[in-house]
Amino acid sequence: MPPAPAALAAKVRTLGPSMTRSMQRVAEAVAGDPAGCAALTVTGLAELTGTSEATVVRTARLLGYPGYRDLRLALAGLAAQQQSGRAPALTTDIAVDDPIADVVAKLAYDEQQTLADTAAGLDTAQLGAAVTALAGARRTDVYGVGASGLVAQDLTQKLLRIGLIAHAHGDPHLAVTNAVQLRAGDVAIAITHSGSTGDVIEPLRVAFEHGATTVAITGRPDGPVTQYADHILTTSTARESELRPAAMSSRTSQLLVVDCLFIGVAQRTYDAAAPALSASYEALAHRHRR
């Protein structure tokens, strides 16, 4: 199914960096003026963006629409949503001399937009398949480095608390040596916003070749990591700026996906998960009374 109109801007932000410059011009035009572009034929949009009809069609398909006609329908729907009163996107670059109250407001807006974009673009069929694999896994290994490594630890901590066997691997050598031990019935998850982090791709490849079910959580659905992924969960991110590196907003969207995975698994395994959660709360309760 083509993306819903609300997901169009998120798709442009997510896929834009991997597009050719001519495709970026088309994508930026349709996201920036959906009403105006919805009124254009494929020839008109090509002329407006200084590209070709073929580029317009390729861009539409990369954004998830079968053809330009479907993209125009989505643009019309997005324009109608905006005209119904939804506030336009804000410019939220943080300046070095911004008051702290403005920093809070801008960060909050960016976080909300990142979460909304990720939710709009998340493939729930892929998410459901990943949940099914996790719920029945003998063991789950999660790979991530840097900020993504923190997200990997968060996921494994959650899975452990509902009684599942899970390990987070930030050391690339340890990740590969453990991936060798995986087999059918196990799950390996790679978390990489760029989709090209070698220290994450290598253990996922090894796990894939040994028969484990593999999942990629990435901001680049066309990145190298996806060639070894059975299931791809795409995240969004706010535009990078001097004081807001991509790792900040990518972490936010990754944590949303991780939470979706965890809740889905807890639902599927509720009879075992609920007592395990209660036991973990009880084991720590005395520490919170001090």
Chain-wise SSE layout:
Layout: H1 8-15, H2 21-32, H3 34-38, H4 42-49, H5 53-62, H6 68-83, H7 100-121, H8 124-135, E1 140-143, H9 147-161, E2 166-169, H10 172-179, E3 187-192, H11 198-209, E4 213-218, E5 231-234, H12 246-268, H13 270-288
Parallel strand pairs: 1-2, 1-3, 3-4, 4-5
Characterise the protein shown here.
It is built from 13 helices and 5 strands. The radius of gyration is 21 Å and the shape is globular. The chain is α/β, with parallel strands linked by helices and 290 residues long. Helix 1 crosses helix 7 (100-121) and helix 9 (147-161) runs parallel beside helix 12. The chain has helices at residues 8-15, 21-32, 34-38, 42-49, 53-62, 68-83, 100-121, 124-135, 147-161, 172-179, 198-209, 246-268, 270-288, and strands spanning 140-143, 166-169, 187-192, 213-218, 231-234. The protein has a 5-stranded parallel beta sheet, with helices on both faces.
